[in-house]
Amino acid sequence: QAMGIRTVAVYVEADSEAPFVREADEAVRLPAGYLDGDSILKAAQTTGAGAIHPGYGYLSENAGFARAVTSAGLAWVGPSPEVIEQMGDKITAKALAEASGVPTLPGSESVGDAESVGFPLLVKASAGGGGKGMRIVESASDLDEAVVSAKREAASGFGDDRVFLERYVTRARHIEIQILADGTDTVHLFERDCSVQRRHQKIVEVAPAVGLPADLTQALYDDAVRICKGAGYVNAGTVEFLVDPKTWKHYFIEVNPRIQVEHTVTEVITGVDLVQSQIRVAAGQRLSEIGLTQGDVAKRGYAIQARVTTEDPAQDFRPDTGRLQVWRPAEGFGIRLDGGNAYSGATISPHYDSMLMKVTGSALDFKSAAEKVSRALIETRIRGVKTNTPFILNVLRHPDFLSGEATTSFIADSPELFNFVDGQDR
User: Fold this and answer.
1) Is 303 strand, coil or helix?
2) In this structure, are residues 343 and 241 in contact, taking their beta carbons and an 8 Å threshold?
3) Other C-beta atoms within 10 Å of 39: how many?
4) Is 167 in contact with 151 (CB distance < 8 Å)?
5) pLDDT on residue 156
């Protein structure tokens, strides 16, 4: 709308009163859910839409859906179907990284190679994302069960049960590089640290990363751009790496050929509207035309995003459901709120993702940014469902997080994060 473009939202009946439905210029109800690509395409054609933005979800990495959109004469706001097929598949993306000279972790598509890959290892789904279809295996005796479980989850979530093995790096930093490309130029928009994770699902994200050596971040930028150029990448995407803080060696793990939930922190430190940039690139504009060559992009300060979910951390993050009796998010200078479904009176169902909103705080220094997010969470009032707010507050106050030393094992290594003093129902 800010670009002068009329918008059409699609929604399911359960979200008929959601703010995003009311804010759109037009809205179309989907009869069979958000993964019903045929109905989404029909809605676009019926309303005379010229483009489809697939959001963050699974359809954003569905090459078949992207191909159906372009075949119907509509613009697809994202990378091409061919790139999605290559990059959305972790096995082929890893092969591309290796061909580009980018370091990768030892791995294999054969379960029989587990000993040569080495333990601990990770069983990973080739398709999809969001931490699904992934299992850590400490010893050979646990391998078969982990493979069966990962394949089952991958098939259910992505319609593809292929898995592969990869060496697991304990206590790593999970660093990702934001990319924009127009088919001629490819630029990076610096890094995000997504190390604070639960079951491979990101909870708190930071931009830029704290405490990384300058030569390492430059190597990450260069490798991310090299991989995307090698694939002929166009539009926005994220190249993800693991970094060993003992050696500062980095390893490519995957490419997400879409915009990501945590893109807000990159937008805040760079001042670049990534979704608007996606739309402009999809409309055929060059990055140079919109002031986004590498020399145009700069970063300032720090941003931290916390994902507020309807989960009870005292009960192993068990999802909670019910009616939002009170919904009053805090606002203020340096605070950004992103959400689409939450409002007073809304019913939180078990059918969709448990995230209520994203709270992003920014400041010139890292600790002040953490204080901004903490203050916003404390002042936010949510009644009717339990949330993970007390847990996030403990993360934001933890010395390992504030020193920039949190790794992918941070939550597992820090049982004190589950000592709640702020009350469970915020």
Assistant:
1) strand
2) no
3) 17
4) no
5) 87
pTM attached to this predicted model: 0.93
pLDDT at 205 over 80: yes
Which tokens in the block code for residue 109?
């598509």
What does residue 4 show for φ and ψ, rounded to 5 degrees?
A: 80, 20
Asked if 174 and 193 count as a contact pair (C-beta separation under 8 A), the reply is: yes
Beta bridge partners of 46: none
* Count of residues making up the chain: 426
Residue 359 half-sphere exposure, CB side, CA atoms within 13 Å?
27
Helix axes 214-231, 90-99, angle to 10 degrees: 110
DSSP result, 357-397:
EEEEEEESSHHHHHHHHHHHHHH-EEESS--SHHHHHHHHH
Q: Report pLDDT for 199.
A: 83
Reported as a pLDDT band with limits 50, 70 and 90, residue 2 is: very high
Amino acid found at 184: T
**Of 177, 185, 198, nearest in space to 252 by CA:** 177
Confidence class for position 77, pLDDT limits 50, 70, 90 = very high
User: What confidence tier does 424 reach under pLDDT thresholds 50, 70, 90?
Assistant: very low
Give dist(CA 207, CA 334) in Å, integer: 14
29 is catalytic: no
- Is residue 18 within 8 Å of residue 327, measured between CB atoms? no
Average pLDDT over residues 340-368: 90
Active-site option among 258, 280, 336, 426 = 258
| Phi, psi for 330 (deg, rounded to 5) | -75, 150
